[in-house]
Amino acid sequence: MAFLSRQRQALCAWQGRQRKGTNAMGEYAIEFEQVSKTFPHAAEPAVHETSLNIAEGSFITILGASGSGKTTLLKMVNRIHEPTSGRIRVQGQDITSLPVKNLRRKIGYVIQQIGLFPHMTVEQNIATVPKILGWNAGKIRERVAELLELVHLPAEFRDRYPRQLSGGQQQRVGIARAMAGDASIMLMDEPFGALDAITRASLQDELIDIQRKLNKTILFVTHDIDEAMKLGDQIVIMNEGRIQQYGTPLEILTEPANDFVRQLVHADDVFQRLELMEAQRMMVPVRQASGEIGHTVYTTDSLKKVLSCLLQSDGEQVGVRNEDDELVGTIGFEQLKVLDGRIHEPIESR
Ligand SMILES: Nc1ncnc2c1ncn2[C@@H]1O[C@H](COP(=O)(O)OP(=O)(O)OP(=O)(O)O)[C@@H](O)[C@H]1O
Ligand SMILES: [Mg+2]
C-alpha cells in the first residue's frame, strides 16, 4: 500500500499541476453523495450509491458501456431525473433547494443526439437560454457572434437552419448553444458520437482549447476510450451503474483498479495509450526545473514522444516548449519511474 501511495504522489508531481480542488469557498463544482437512481419497474438501479467530487474547472470524462448509467448520472445534475436516494450539490448547494430554472442557468447541456430545434435558425437556437434570461436583442446578437467565432463557424451561418449544416457544424452550434448563458458547468452527453473521425478530432481539440480559455467544469460522457483519455483531466469509469475507478488517465493506465478497468482501457497497451496524452498535461512547470535539459518537445507532443526522446537523449529530462518556443516545463526519468519496468521496453519497435 505504501508503495502504491508513493506511486500516486509521484504521479501527481509528474503532472506538474495541482489537482484542482474546491473554490475559495471550499466548494466543489459538483458533489454526488451516495446517489442512486432506480427507474420504476427496473430490477436493478441505473446508478448505484455513487459518490463523486468534481473540482471547479476540471474536465471529467465518463466512460462506460451502453446502459452503464452515464446519461442517468448526467441527467440527475440538471434534474431531468431525480435521484431515488442520495444528494447532489452544485457549488455547495443542494440542487433540490433551488428552483430548477435557477439550477439550469448554471449548467449548459449538450444532449446525446444533436438536438437542435429544427424550425429555428442557428441564431435562434443559440439564443434560447439568453432569451429565457431576458437579455436584450443587442446583447443577444453580440453573444451569438462571439460564440460562432469561438466554435469556428462563419458569422453568416446565423441565419441558416440546422438541416443546412453538416453534422459537425450542427454539433458546433450545439456547443455554442450550451455555452450561451455563460454557465460555469457543461454537461456533454456523447456530443461527438455521430461524427467522422477527422471532424471529431478537430472538435475535441477545439473543446480542449475552449475549456482552457474559459475554465468551465465539464462532464463529458463517451464510450470511446481514446476520447476519454485525450479529453479528461480525470476519467470516471462506470459499469452496471457503479463507478469502477475515478482517476487521471495515467493512473487508470498504470494502476487499473480491477480487471474490468484493465480490459476496458487495454492497460497492457500502455504505449499506445500514451500517444493520446499531451506533454503539457503531465509536465512539471519550468520554475521547478533543475539539472540538465536534453532534447525538447512541444506542449502538444505526445507522452510517447517524450518517452522516446528520453530514451534517445543523455539528459535526465526533456524540456517542454510552447508554440512560441519558450521553455515552459520539463518531464524527467525520475517521474517516469511510475511506469515501472515498462519503459525499458524498446518503444520504437512497437
Ligand atoms: N427513462 C428511463 N426509464 C426507465 N429506464 C431507463 C430510463 N433511462 C434509462 N433507463 C435504464 O437505465 C440504465 C442506464 O441507462 P443510461 O441511459 O444511463 O445508460 P448509458 O450509459 O447512458 O448508455 P448509452 O451509452 O447507451 O447511452 C439502462 O438499463 C436503461 O435502460
Ligand atoms: Mg447515454
From TrEMBL:
Its EC number is 7.6.2.9. Residues 30-265 form the ABC transporter domain. It is a peripheral membrane protein. Keywords: ATP-binding, CBS domain, Cell inner membrane, Cell membrane, Membrane, Nucleotide-binding, Repeat, Transport. One of its GO terms (molecular function) is ATP binding. Its main location: membrane. InterPro entries: AAA+_ATPase (IPR003593), ABC_transporter-like_ATP-bd (IPR003439), ABC_transporter-like_CS (IPR017871), Gly-betaine_transp_ATP-bd (IPR005892), P-loop_NTPase (IPR027417). It comes from the Bacteria. The keyword Cell inner membrane applies. It catalyses: a quaternary ammonium(out) + ATP + H2O = a quaternary ammonium(in) + ADP + phosphate + H(+). It is found in: Cell inner membrane. SMART domains: AAA (SM00382). Belongs to the ABC transporter superfamily. The complex is probably composed of two ATP-binding proteins, two transmembrane proteins and a solute-binding protein. This is Quaternary amine transport ATP-binding protein. It comes from Marinicrinis sediminis. The lineage of its organism: Bacteria, Bacillati, Bacillota, Bacilli, Bacillales.
